[in-house]
Structure formats: C-alpha cells, structure tokens
Amino acid sequence: MNSFQQNKKSKKTLFFLTVIILLIATGDIFSGGLIRVSLRDSVSLVNGGVYNMVSAVSSAKIFSSKQALAKENAKLTDELRRFSSYRIQNEILKAENEALRSLVNLQEGNVVGKTARVVSSLKSSPFSTLIIDAGERDGISENDYAVMEGGVVVGFVAEVGEYSSLINLLTAPAQKSEVLINGELVEMTGRGGGNALVQLPREIIVSENDLVLLRGSGFSAGVIGNIKSTPASASQDVYISVPFNIQAQEFVTVFENLL
Amino acid sequence: MRLFVVAVTFLSALFAPVWAFFLLAGFLAVRYPSWEVMLIAFFMDLVYLPIGGFFGIPFVITILVCILVWGLDPLRNQLVFK
C-alpha cells in the first residue's frame, strides 16, 4: 500500500470514528446521560481497586528504610500531640457552634451523612468534578451536599449512578451558589482551582478568614482568602477559598439537601 | 511506539494532571492520524463532564481534540512526518 492509499484509509477511519462518537454523544444526551452514568460506574469500580492497591502497598511500607520509618514515627508522635490539642479546641468550638446554630436556625448537626471514597483525581478533571464510589444504591440523590474536612461543603451531587456519583465543586468555573457572608446573602461564582469570587458592596465590612456559609445548608462553603477593592469602585472583590487541599482528601461525606 | 503513547495517554486521562493529557494528545495528533485520542477525549467527557456541559457546551474535550486531529491533518501530511 502506498502512502496515498494509507492516508486515504486513515482519513476514512477518522471520519468513521467521528461519526460513531457523534452518534453515541447524541444517544447519551437524549437518554439523559445514561451512557456516561454507566461508564462512570465502571470507572469507579476500576479506580477504587487501583486506589485500594496503591494504599495497601504504601501502608505496607515495603519500600521504606529503617531510618525513614524512625523519622516518620517521630513525625507522627509530634502530630498526635498536636491533634490532641486540636481535639480540645474542637470541643470548645463545637459547643460554640451548636449555640450559634440554634440562633440562626440552621440544619441540625445530628443529620447523618454517607461517607464515600473519592475515586477520581481532581487534577485529572478539567471541569472541577469528582467521582465518588457511592450512588443511588447508597441513598445518594442529586443536589446532595458533598462535605469534607471540618464541615466544609466542597460541592454538590450533579449526577447519580447506581454505584457512583459525580460531584460538581462549588469552586468549578462559573458555578453559582448562594452564600451568607456576615449575614448578607450574596451570589458566589466559582473560579476553578479551589477558589470562588463574590462581589460585595463596599459598605459591607469583611476581613480575611471570615467564615462563608452556604445558604440553607448549615455548612461552611469556605473562608475569605483575599479582598480587593479600589476607591473608584462601588463594590469589592472577595475571594473565597477552601481552607484545605481538596486534592489531598480521600473521603467525602454526603448530606441530604433539605432545601 | 504509537500503542505505548496511546496507553500512557489513557492512563494520564485517569490519573495525571489534565495538561499531561493535552500534551500527549497533541503529540499523538501531530505524529499520527490518531483516532485513539478522539476516543480517549470522548471517554474523558463522559466520565468527568456533567450532562449540562462546560459553560453550556457539551463534550468540550472531544470537540477540542477533533479540531486538533482534523486540523493537524494537512500539516501531518505535508510538512511533518511524510
């Protein structure tokens, strides 16, 4: 076969595949995402297995030297000490939080969430989405809150499969959500990379590390990271960030959306 | 070589940062008339993208990669690796 024939054949293959993709894509859209949900279930199963294997190998410390283990031991002892002090602080904050919750009539803290494992890498997703290994069969439904470390809502359930669900982060580009900052109800827009933006009138006084609450959830949506305002503008740009690295989180707790 | 890069591209779609995927996809599109990269892009869209799309556009990565593969076709044929 000469290069002209080869070229013609490869073009034919490309064209044929483009048509097939177009047909499947149309089928997926018209079936309401049936194909993607089934595919996500399979990916969740495979990825879950891979992550289990990786964590089993790393926890077995097969590749660690004695010195590295001694170093890690010292680090963990230090961490344990730090965490016991955090635990006491946490108890105090919990009591204070309960008192505040009753004041603002938010969702009660005794609502039980469903813990699920994150089976996709956030850095691999160009759309700030996560896949978790819990779905319809575990009682997950659309628009439920996905909560991580310290009761911070990182996103909500966008699509549910039988064994897996897709979480859309609040900080996903152009994602809009209603939040409360110092009692003021405002719209937060995701900017990607774990950040979101709120435009507030300049009269509202806010400062860095102020808590941002997700409307009607009783959970925090992050903290104020940076404030930018110019004397010429009537509003100020308030940047909201999640106080931890979402990529490093292995688990997520899903709470029912009562709104 | 082609099979190896395709396998790495597929793994990068699942476990590596998104730029790694685009880098490998670009390489495949320049070097070969790579229909495989279109399939991987479609797979990524199905797995990561909610049905509402990205800024309302469905199958964004597939569209981008299709443009890349088809767009680079004349370049591949006439200039690069004839």
UniProtKB/TrEMBL annotation, chain A:
Keywords annotated in UniProt: Cell shape
Pfam families documented for this protein: MreC
InterPro entries noted in UniProt: Cell/Rod_1, Cell/Rod_MreC_2, MreC, MreC_beta-barrel_core
One GO CC annotation: plasma membrane
Residue span, Rod shape-determining protein MreC beta-barrel core domain: 118-255
GO BP terms: regulation of cell shape
UniProt keyword Kinase, yes or no: no
PANTHER family membership: CELL SHAPE-DETERMINING PROTEIN MREC
Family: Belongs to the MreC family.
Protein name as it appears in the record: Cell shape-determining protein MreC
From TrEMBL, chain B:
Alphabetical keyword list: Membrane, Transmembrane, Transmembrane helix
Membrane-spanning parts: 47-72
Protein origin, superkingdom: Bacteria
Name assigned to this protein: Uncharacterized protein
Species the sequence originates in: Candidatus Taylorbacteria bacterium CG10_big_fil_rev_8_21_14_0_10_41_48
